[in-house]
Design brief:
75 residues; alpha+beta; 3 helices; 27% strand; globular
Length: 75
C-alpha cells in the first residue's frame, strides 16, 4: 500500500526513483525521463508514492499508474 504524501519526509528526500510497469516498456528513455520529471515535480498528486528510509534521509519512489500518465497529460 502506498504512503500518503508526508511533508516531513519530503523535506528530507535526498534521491528519487520511478518504477515503471511493463505496460510502458515500449516507451523511449526520453519520454520516460520527461514523465518522471513531471511526476516528481508534484509528488503529492502521485497515485502510488512511497518513501524509503536511508542513512542520509529518504528516497521518494513513485510507481507510475495510468492515472498519473493522464494527470500529466502524456499519452
Amino acid at each position: 500500500m502506498p504512503n500518503a504524501f508526508d511533508p516531513y519526509r519530503e523535506a528530507l528526500v535526498v534521491e528519487w526513483h520511478t518504477n515503471w510497469p511493463d505496460t510502458y516498456e515500449d516507451w523511449s528513455a526520453a519520454d520516460k525521463a520527461r514523465v518522471e520529471s513531471l511526476l516528481h515535480t508534484s509528488p503529492a498528486e502521485a497515485a502510488d508514492l512511497d518513501y524509503l528510509r536511508q542513512h542520509s534521509g529518504f528516497a521518494r519512489v513513485i510507481t507510475v499508474t495510468p492515472d498519473d500518465v493522464d494527470r500529466v497529460s502524456v499519452a
